[in-house]
Amino acid sequence: MTRPRLISLLGSYGVVLALLLLVLFGWARYDYFLGFFNITSVLRYNSMFALVALGMCFVIMTGGIDLSVGSTAALGSVVAALASPQGAWIGLGAGVGAGLCVGLINAILVTRLKIMPFVATLAMMLAASGTALLLADNQSVSVSYESGFTSIGQDNFLGFPIPAWIAIMAYVVGWIVVNFTSTGRGVLAVGGNEDATRLMGLPADRIKFLVYLASGGLAGLAGVILASQFGAGQPIEGVGWELFAIAAVVVGGTLLTGGVGSVGATLAGVLLLGILFNVLNFENGKGWISLSAYWQSVIRGLFLLVVVILQAKLSSRGSVAVRDY
Amino acid sequence: MTDTARQQLISRPFDPFDFMARYGTLIALALLILFNFAFTRNFATMQTLNVNLTQVCTIVIVAIGMTLVIATGGIDLSVGSLMAISGALAPMIFLGKIVPIDNVALAVAAAMIIAVGVAGLFGLFNGWLIARFRIQPIVATLVLFIAGRGIAQVLTNGNLQTFRVPQFQWIGLGRLFGIPVQVVLMVLLVIAAAWMLKRTVFGRQIIAIGGNERAAELSGIAVSRVKLVVYTISGLCAGIAGLVVIAINSSSDANLVGMGMELDAIAAVAVGGTLLSGGKATIIGTLLGAMTIQLVRYTLLANGVPDAAALVVKAGIIVLAVWIQQQGRRA
Amino acid sequence: MRSELAFEMNTNSLLSMTGIDKRFAGIPALAGASFAVGRGEVHALIGQNGAGKSTLIKVLTGYYKRDAGEVVFDGKPFEVSSPQQAQASGISTIYQEINLVPYRSITENICLGREARRYGLLDWKRMHQEAEALLQRFNVRADVRRPLMEFNTATQQMVAIARAIGFSAKLVIMDEPTSSLDEREVAVLFNVIRQLKQEGVSVVFVSHKLDELYEVCDRVTIMRDGRTVKTAAMNEIDKIGLVSAMLGRAIERAEGHATAFSDRDEKKIGKVLLSAENLAINQIVQDVSFNVRSGEIAGFAGLLGAGRTETARLVFGIDRPRAGTMIFNGQTFDPHKPSDAIAAGMGFCTEDRKSEGIVPDMSVAENMMLALMPKLSKSGVIDDKAQRDIVERFIRQLGIKCSGPDQKVRELSGGNQQKVLLGRWLAMNPRLLILDEPTRGIDVGAKGEIQALIKTLADQGLAVLMISSELEEVIEGADRVFVLREGISVAEFDRDEATEDAVMSAMAHGSAPTIAEAAP
Amino acid sequence: DAPPLKKKDTYKVGFAQTESNNPWRLAQTASMQEEAKKRGWQLVYTDAASSAAKQVADVNSMIAQGVDLIFLAPREEKPLIPAIKAAKNAGIPVILLDRNVDASLAKPGEDYVTFIGSNFIEEGQRVADWLVKNANGKTTIIELEGTTGSSPANDRKKGFDDVIAKNPDFKIVASQTGDFARDKGRQVAETLLQAHPDANVVYAHNDEMAMGAISAIEAAGKVPGKDILVLSIDGGKEAVQAVVDGKIAAVVECNPRFGPKAFDTAIAYAAGEKIPDKIINPDQFYDASNAKELLSTAY
Ligand SMILES: Nc1ncnc2c1ncn2[C@@H]1O[C@H](COP(=O)(O)OP(=O)(O)OP(=O)(O)O)[C@@H](O)[C@H]1O
Ligand SMILES: Nc1ncnc2c1ncn2[C@@H]1O[C@H](COP(=O)(O)OP(=O)(O)OP(=O)(O)O)[C@@H](O)[C@H]1O
Ligand SMILES: O[C@@H]1[C@@H](O)[C@H](O)OC[C@H]1O
Ligand SMILES: [Mg+2]
Ligand SMILES: [Mg+2]
């Protein structure tokens, strides 16, 4: 392998490297870090972010952005909780449906009314949150414990948390869509040069439409897991999820300007940032930084800084990585 | 008469879409004011004007910097955190927590200059990440969005600082010719920025970079330097806004000062008609945009719309305002 | 009456457009234009910059919605609202500005929209093969898995053409496909056009290089000010006829010269202003030496990818050389960034006007003043009056067709955008001007004006480094011609030595005699 | 039954805080940390940054680290249940601080040891009761709510509004969120005072918003305490000082200093003592009659 090729590979997989290093660090420094309990609970919790980040990744690949994912998840959780007494599947469908509704409005605002994605989804972030609060009457909504709805978030399948299975499946589908379907290639093309894509005769608007819809649906699904994992629909949850997702996507090497992106690296980005929180909690147990909780944000910021600079240095030397199959 | 001059004389027919795009924000604002005259109790008073103007000040000041940043094709998520840093630092200095300064005037001056200066430096840091490492602005500024508030909290150990220092609080509570000082400050900054953007080389360079960065670079524009300056200005604006907020409240809470400001400021810029993709900017638009958002907030509160419903209404109005703007551009 | 006419056209033509109107913000770009293309015909569409050629095409493909008029395609009324539908109906288009997706691979750029599938999923292997095979028709060999942006303009243009051909279309539209191709590639393209014709496919061909038209086109339609003014069989109209129809007035033109670089006064050439020795950066530029004197036009000739553009970038400080030295105006010259070169008195008009030239949302005036602005300001404040004067002067001098200095540059036709960029650098009054394909996409009338202008400026002492893929432009325009081949400067010709044959053979086979000698 | 706690000289305990964005929370955290230090216990501290979901993840990471006991200040009543259950399954006892969890889903003495804290509904009631008695004709009320959807906001509203509803003389003319924050509280108060010039009572769900409201009242040219009665909850030093100065009429204490009682309870539990299901803090009530003398004891 030639040097530039290696560097460009590192550029796109730098995040994987960082992830490995962080895990290694945690394993060496803390007892029980790689214990079964910790691994499964980290995965169970972060599966919500993984789903939201997957949707975000698609949106960003088209050159857009979706700020509404957090409140959409909150809305999804409320709707799912309200519907959960009717049965697990109905709760699931209702939550995803609520997300799809928000996604649909985003899609219409962006592709039909031509409103900038940042503004359109910012507005929907407010609207979804307001709707969630209205539906929930400003309070958390209990889910039904009888209907089996809580299994979705709390149970295991083959010893592995169900939410993690759901996230993995979503990523496999996402990966196939990006790499092996024309819609997926269209997503990248639209982000790379929307005007050209249109002139090339691709249905740019339909692609963007689908992407916002998918992002909404995935956020709704994350909401279902939120409701089911914690036993309540939570109208005020989801604050800042959009930034977490954006950070994960970008740390994964996806360009915010669109046109280049990787589903797999996004997952690595989610795990990287998610595990960082976990590491910070373990570090607190050591008593070094627990004196002031505020150091946590400083450390998180610094960590992001290091990863992002590393990314930038690696990818500026190799050229943009395009996958060849 | 030259050929081009003649062509200019051929008047274009009245185009309602163009008109909407040009005056969309103004129309929205006028409609809101009319609505309030009709439905909101006690609206037509000086005090209402006063309340709205003083409340909109900080958003406008931050949004000025944000407009410039957005004009270059960037974005600055760190403004709220920078407000917190400046808001945390200033009282530490004038209350003599760092080094005791006997002369109050001196202490206040030092506090203001250092606090705003530090915010500017952090802005410069944002610019450095973006210009030097070509990190995408949203992520580069996300770093300080997260860490910046942490820094402010670490500085104060998260504690609330309360104070009564009239010399300092003048910028939040004082009046100049009967007008609140912060309003005067806001107006001055708006005029300066609008003039700069329209009439100076630097302003033109900002727009060029947002419009086509490579072309700008090849035309000899020092793209990196312009970006550094623009993010620094954004930091300075945030720093000033931070001081205004704590001055009004007689207290500084690193945990909350500037919370959510980035989205308010960006919304003001967008509603004001500046394209978020860069290459275009209007400071007056931003002022009108911020006022629209402020007035929406006032209207909903004054008429007792429940908070949850207010969120939905606010969303609708933002979309509507931006949609009106967009109409002209598409034709 | 009208419908009768339409019916008549239906029977013998593939496409007929009648009475087409299109206005932008009230200003007409097309006013009652009509256009008809027969089956299996290669039809030229020509006209001055801004005549409405590209607009007509975009109206046809549904990119713009027409304000009035009728279109009949393949015997049926044709109503499409998007290029996608046009493509599905059998119209395949290569737009004027290369419209591809730079981050994506060549394969994707060629296959997007008609991907090969296996078990419902994309079959990459087959797609790569297809892309390679298509490019092979154009003698282009490239790693089709690499992102398009890694390739030069000419290759990108070929990819765009390959893409359009790859769709089995009834009509292929090419809006100035040859402006970034050299003669060898043009010849290949023409072969392909002839093949298409044999297969019964019609081709619409837009070009400002009138000589080319005679090689492949059957008929020609000439546009002026948004109208179609003439349609004729290619063999019934001569060049003068074409030009006078385009310009709308009779012209008499000095024969013998293809360009407006009439004899230059060599006495006005001064001392060496810029000399570069053994510049190298990577495979694209390996060893380039040349010099330019004040008042001299030095030309760079070479095949596509010979390293001319890349050399110019080194001179202008956009990229930094790995080896080699430059002396400018008697001093060592080592620019780190374009502003260094500009400060030293250079200007660079790039070949890629869309991504490196215009700031689309800025006005004509702002675009033109972009580089000069700092000089025309008092302590950072722009001197509007002074700028306006200059801008208006250049709009007049270059004949830029725009509604005024405040019109957005994005609204100008391609050729007029190019003129604005030329204005940007001419306004700087530089000592050395690097022109990379200065007349690309510029109509014959304006081309002559621009060439004459370059000459006048050189006469006044300006040093010009001109890169052009139009051989005659280099040969007639340059006082000296440097030939680059595969990143190496292989030959230098004085004006009288620079015959077409000599230059061409150096471009194709030249080796580096100086290098060979210098090597130990 | 709730998992037992072994008797040891020193413990490794977790404290899962909800958020750190207001002085009240800071005081609570400080109190817990001080107490741990004093007793030489190791404290694993986490901050859920206002997210119930993150708080569950935080508790899980404490379980993973094998702490002996968890102090949990649950952000909300329902979503923290899985955390309590997970701790129970792992054999780690949990003591709830300041906010309770849904009694129908988890039981004291069974799923967790006990709840130590105040009763938010009661706090709202106490404020309202005081107002009904001492209104002196001031009956037009503006209510500044806490963060929308948070349990102290919901409960303090419920407690107060229910009492007011039973007294038809009184009227709440506006009730909007001030997000528990001073700046937001001030801005909202400015607007509401403008829209309701007849209002003469401001009830704020916490001290911070009350302080903001005082600025707003003064900016509107009115005198807090005279023209408008300000009522608040929390009872921090600044607020009690305001009572002394006559700017706040009355404030219910909601003491954040949980440290000593929380740790004592843990020791008692390890010793096998019977712990009551609820340990309600004896919260002060400050008004003009007692504020001056109690000022020094305010937190
Ligand atoms: N989007 C637009 N907005 C406003 N005016 C436009 C727009 N597109 C084209 N025009 C105007 O329409 C006219 C025709 O432009 P068009 O691009 O069709 O010319 P053209 O014949 O292709 O010229 P060239 O040879 O330079 O490419 C020009 O005057 C141009 O300024
Ligand atoms: N492998 C590559 N990676 C990135 N850019 C490339 C690569 N190959 C060529 N280019 C770019 O393509 C452009 C053309 O290169 P070059 O200077 O070799 O062509 P040229 O001689 O000017 O020919 P022409 O302009 O006619 O295509 C340059 O801007 C160069 O940067
Ligand atoms: O007033 C307090 C509020 O500020 C905090 O967030 O939760 C507990 C409350 O008592
Ligand atoms: Mg054209
Ligand atoms: Mg070139």
UniProtKB/TrEMBL annotation, chain A:
One Gene Ontology cellular component: plasma membrane
Top-rank taxon, per record: Bacteria
Membrane topology: Multi-pass membrane protein
Keyword Zinc-finger assigned: no
Keyword Cell inner membrane part of the UniProt annotation: no
Pfam family, one: BPD_transp_2
Entry's localization field: Cell membrane
InterPro entries cross-referenced by the UniProt entry: ABC_transp_permease
Transmembrane portions of the chain: 7-28, 48-75, 87-109, 115-136, 157-178, 209-231, 243-276, 288-310
Alphabetized UniProt keyword annotations: Cell membrane, Membrane, Transmembrane, Transmembrane helix
One Gene Ontology MF term: transmembrane transporter activity
Primary site of residence: membrane
PANTHER family according to UniProt: ABC TRANSPORTER PERMEASE PROTEIN YPHD-RELATED-RELATED, RIBOSE IMPORT PERMEASE PROTEIN RBSC
Protein name, UniProt field: Ribose transport system permease protein
Source organism per UniProt: Phyllobacterium trifolii
UniProtKB/TrEMBL annotation, chain B:
Keywords annotated in UniProt: Cell membrane, Membrane, Transmembrane, Transmembrane helix
Localization in the cell: Cell membrane
Entry membrane topology: Multi-pass membrane protein
Main location: membrane
Gene Ontology cellular component list: plasma membrane
Bilayer-spanning residue ranges: 20-39, 51-70, 77-98, 104-125, 137-156, 176-197, 228-248, 308-324
Domain of life: Bacteria
This protein's record includes keyword Cell membrane: yes
GO terms, molecular function: transmembrane transporter activity
Record PANTHER family: ABC TRANSPORTER PERMEASE PROTEIN YPHD-RELATED-RELATED (PTHR32196), GALACTOFURANOSE TRANSPORTER PERMEASE PROTEIN YTFT (PTHR32196:SF19)
Name of the protein in question: Ribose transport system permease protein
Native organism: Phyllobacterium trifolii
From TrEMBL, chain C:
Keyword Repeat among UniProt keywords: yes
One Gene Ontology term of the molecular function aspect: ATP binding
CDD domains: ABC_Carb_Monos_I, ABC_Carb_Monos_II
Transmembrane segments: none
Main location, first listed in the record: membrane
Keyword flag Plastid: no
Record Pfam families: ABC_tran
SUPFAM superfamilies: P-loop containing nucleoside triphosphate hydrolases (SSF52540)
ABC transporter domain location: 15-250, 267-511
Topology term for the membrane: Peripheral membrane protein
Family: Belongs to the ABC transporter superfamily.
Name the UniProt record assigns to this protein: Ribose transport system ATP-binding protein
Record lineage: Bacteria, Pseudomonadati, Pseudomonadota, Alphaproteobacteria, Hyphomicrobiales
